[in-house]
Amino acid sequence: WLTQERQDAQVIETGLTSELVSSAGHRKRLRTKTVKMLDEPAIEEMVAQHELFISWLPHLVKRDRGIDIVIEDSEDDARLRELDCDVTGLRRESLTWRRLAGIVS
Q1: What does residue 82 show for φ and ψ, rounded to 5 degrees?
Q2: Is the pLDDT confidence value at 11 over 80?
Q3: Rg (Cα) of the chain, in Å, rounded?
Q4: Farthest-apart Cα atoms in the chain, separation
């Protein structure tokens, strides 16, 4: 639909959440949602990222606006909790990379 209507559409908003109005007056919203995972992760980091993504996926799908998340390292638990709160709206103080990886219960 975007390719066909884009030619005659008016772009109202751009960015992670874009909105356009077609020549017929139909509003369309595009929500870009990206999650950049670690480069060259160890197996424990892969497990942790998998667990994290599974917990985030329902929140990302329901989100009515775009988001761009970058996971830079697995050493900073405070940053992990900040990202988690941005995605889920929850404050999970017990969330750590080691717990996600199953290293600590």
Answers
A1: -65, -50
A2: no
A3: 18
A4: 57
